[in-house]
Structure formats: structure tokens, C-alpha cells
Design brief:
It is built from 15 helices and 14 strands. It has about 400 residues and is an alpha+beta fold. The protein has one domain: Cytochrome p450, CATH 1.10.630.10.
């Protein structure tokens, strides 16, 4: 049987073999047109984990994203398969909270991430990226994921949080193992191992940094969290720890994913690469197109807080509702020829979420980092080419490459 005549009712969307090389775009295309709110009845690797609804069109993702009363982030976790990750930890991050708790903490974090504050870091971010590229001098080839993307974004978020540069690699490794827990290369200890070993180590290191900032305040974001007050109240210790965790995790991961996928698309589409080389002012548009086609997170999830109905489909209270950005960003009702990578498109998209309370906090930072990463990489290595097979992280949550081998010149 080919995929074209497979009965969608029988499809278990996140079966591993469906994602050998990233998201199953053809399957998502069928779902959008034939069964836009689709039920996956069980999760093969985690039989105890109940099934979930898949939301695949841009309109429906928009609806779910903006209705936190019906679709809760707090009730059941924020990813399709929580795989034993303790719910109380997810709920201690503001990405796993509903209003009013969420609003209170997010407001505090937002103060550190205004577009103006981020723009103030432009020179520093460029210096970090240039420094990372300088380290490639004398090399003929490299892995753009590890040697450029990871190295640059770890230092950027590290500098915001006050992490010393010599600790960047260990933080990146711990975050990759936790977020990419299903990939044996990123996390050799298995999902349970990550929960029992890596997560406690992360917390220990967070707590240590927090204790240091209590003693000796600095001007980094960790200090801001430790000393912040909302309506005269300080954040609780676990809120600071989980806030720190959320920022370091988000900062380490997503931006490098979009950088690597965007660079791959450019190297595979030399005509598009040439457009950017001829006219670097197209880079911000290429960044948006990379975000659209390769959203760093394949999905985030909500849980129905009451019985409801979406696009003609009944959804029962307590059921999981998964918003697939990898699908909604290629919805043909929004984009002409959605699978074509077009650096002049400058699209709107849902890579940062589709609005509503949980819209990404890091958009200004991510956009600036991506612009500088593309700018500097292309200016220095206009002759770069692919040099081996890029490989995806094994995950239905992280939509990212774990390796992208290139020849530099
Ligand atoms: C290409 C880069 C990035 C992408 C594609 C991305 C994507 C997303 C998405 C889809 C959400 C929404 C989750 C939901 O609706 O439940 C989100 C939330 C969030 N992102 Fe990002 N992100 C990126 C970069 C960053 C960076 C650099 C930071 C900060 C250092 C960051 C911090 C956050 C935080 C704190 C939230 C939670 C917001 C909330 O719950 O109110 N992100 N991100």
C-alpha cells in the first residue's frame, strides 16, 4: 500500500518510521485536506501514553493557540508525548502555565526581552558570531550545526544568563540530551536516563548560579530573575530555576535549528543562495522563509479543558490537542507552492506559535541572531557547499538537524 491510499484513520502520526528524514510532509498534506483534525489512537513507544488530536491547518492552529480557556497549557503538559517527564516540572515553567499565573511571570521575563533591549545586544551578538567563524580559519570543512550554530547560540544565551563561556558546551550537551531525549546520539542514556541523571544535574547547576547571584548581584538575566519583584513579591526558588531552565533550553536549541535548516536549503537551492549573495538585504526575508519552512519545534501541545468542537470534530475534556507548526506553515490556503523555498517570500508564519498568551518570548532575539548568522556565514564563505548527508534529530518535537557537514570554500 502506498501512502496515498493508506487509510488516515489507521495512521499513528509519530511512529518513528514515518519520520526518517524529518517531518512526513506528504502525510501532513493529506491530513490538511482530508482530515484536518486527526486522531492518533496511541503512541507505539509509550503505550501508557493516551492518543492525541493533531491540528494541521493554519486556521485551526490559530484558533487553538489563542483560546487558552479551552486549550490549556497547564493541565497535561506541552508536548505530545511527555514520556514520564514529571508534569509538575513542566508546570513550573511559564510555558506550562495558564493565566493568571502565566501572565504574572511572563510579564517579568518580557521586560528582559523587549525588541529595544535585544537590539542593544546587536554588536555583542555579531562579535560572538564572528569569533565562532574565526575559529574555522584553516579548516576545509566543518559541521554547521555543532561548530557554528550551537557554538554561537550557546554563547549568546550564555552571555544573557551570565554563564561562563567555558561552561557553554556542557549546558548545550545537557539541553540537547533533555529536549532531544528520544535521539540516542544526543541522549545515550535513554529517556528515563535523562530524567534521572541529566535533569537533576541541570537543576543543581541552576541552583548554584542562583545562589551566587543572591550573594553577588550582577547585571545578567539570572540576577534579574533572582531579585525581581511582581507586586512586591519575589519569585519562588523553583520558579526562578525553571525560568532559567526554560530560557537556556529555548536559547540553545531553536535558533541553531533554523540556522542549520535554512543553510541547508540555501546550499541545496543555489539559485536562492545566489539571490542572497547578490542582495544581502534579502536576508531578513530568507530568515522568515526558513522559519516558515523549518519551524524549530514541530509542535506544541494543549489539553482540552472542556468538551469542545473544532473544525467539525468533537474533542472531549482532557484530550490532548497537538498543534503541528510543521504542517500549518505549509498550508496551501496560505502559501502558494508551499514546499518551495523562496527567499523573496518574506512570509508570515506560525514558527513562533500562532499568537495568544504563549507566543514566543525570544522572537526578537532569534530573528537578530539568525540575521547575523546568515550575514556573516555567507559573507565569509560564499563558496560553501554540502559535504555529506545531513541527519535529523530523531524526534517528533525537535525539527532539527543534528549534523550538517559542509566544505567551507
Ligand atoms: C528560531 C527560534 C525560535 C523558535 C522557532 C521558537 C518557537 C517557539 C514557539 C512555537 C513557542 C510557543 C509555544 C506554545 O505556544 O506553547 C515558543 C515559546 C517560547 N519561546 Fe521560543 N522560539 C525560538 C527562540 C527562542 C529564544 C531564542 C528564546 C529565549 C531565549 C525563546 C524563548 C521562549 C519562551 C520563554 C517561550 C514561552 C513563552 C510563553 O509560554 O509565554 N524562544 N517559542
Amino acid at each position: 500500500m502506498t501512502m496515498a491510499d493508506e487509510n488516515l484513520d489507521d495512521v499513528l502520526l509519530i511512529e518513528r518510521e514515518r519520520w526518517p528524514d524529518g517531518p512526513p510532509h506528504e502525510l501532513f498534506r493529506r491530513m490538511r485536506s482530508e482530515c484536518p483534525v486527526h486522531w492518533t489512537s496511541r503512541v507505539p513507544e509509550f503505550p501508557e501514553s493516551a492518543g492525541f488530536w493533531s491540528i494541521t491547518t493554519a486556521d485551526d492552529v490559530y484558533t487553538v493557540s489563542r483560546d487558552w480557556r479551552t486549550y490549556s497549557s497547564e493541565r497535561g503538559g506541552i508536548v505530545a508525548v511527555t514520556a514520564g517527564f514529571p508534569l509538575e516540572l513542566m508546570r513550573a515553567m511559564f510555558i506550562g502555565m495558564d493565566p493568571p499565573k502565566h501572565d504574572r511571570i511572563k510579564a517579568l521575563f518580557q521586560a528582559g526581552f523587549t525588541p529595544k533591549r535585544i537590539a542593544g545586544h546587536e554588536a555583542e551578538i555579531r562579535r560572538i558570531v564572528v569569533d565562532v567563524l574565526d575559529r574555522l580559519e584553516g579548516h576545509e570543512s566543518c559541521d554547521l550545526v555543532v561548530d557554528v550554530g550551537q557554538a554561537a547560540v550557546s554563547r549568546v544565551i550564555g552571555s544573557f544568563m551570565g554563564i561562563p563561556p567555558e561552561d557553554d558546551a556542557i549546558w548545550a550537551e545537557m539541553m540537547n540530551a533533555t529536549l532531544g531525549a528520544s535521539d540516542p546520539d544526543l541522549n545515550p542514556d535513554g529517556v528515563q536516563g535523562a530524567i534521572e541523571k541529566t535533569v537533576p544535574e541541570i537543576f543543581e547547576r541552576c541552583s548554584k548560579m542562583i545562589a551566587e547571584r543572591r550573594e553577588n548581584p550582577t547585571d545578567d538575566l539570572t540576577s534579574v530573575l533572582v531579585h525581581a519583584e511582581i507586586n512586591g513579591e519575589k519569585l519562588e526558588e523553583h520558579e526562578i530555576v525553571m525560568g532559567f531552565f526554560l530560557l537556556v533550553a529555548a536559547g540553545n536549541d531553536s535558533t541553531k535549528a533554523t540556522y542549520a535548516s535554512g543553510m541547508r536549503a540555501l546550499l541545496e537551492n543555489p539559485d536562492q543562495l545566489q539571490l542572497l549573495l547578490d542582495d544581502p538585504s534579502l536576508i531578513p526575508s530568507a530568515v522568515e522563509e526558513s522559519l516558515r519552512m523549518f519551524p524549530a519545534f514541530a509542535h506544541f501541545r494543549r489539553t482540552a479543558a472542556c468538551d469542545t468542537e473544532l473544525n467539525g470534530q468533537e474533542i472531549k475534556e482532557g484530550e490532548k490537542v497537538v498543534m503541528w507548526y510543521v504542517s500549518s506553515n505549509r498550508d496551501a490556503t496560505r502559501y502558494e507552492d508551499p514546499d518551495r523555498f523562496d527567499v523573496t517570500r518574506n512570509p508570515e508564519h506560525q514558527a513562533f506559535g500562532a499568537g495568544g498568551r504563549h507566543f514566543c518570548l525570544g522572537t526578537a532575539l532569534a530573528r537578530l541572531e539568525l540575521k547575523i548568522l546568515f550575514d556573516e556565514t555567507l559573507a565569509r564563505y560564499p563558496e560553501m557547499r554540502l559535504d555529506g548527508r545531513p541527519e535529523f534529530v530523531e524526534s517528533a518535537f525537535l525539527n532539527q538537524l543534528k549534523t550538517l557537514p559542509v566544505r567551507l570554500g
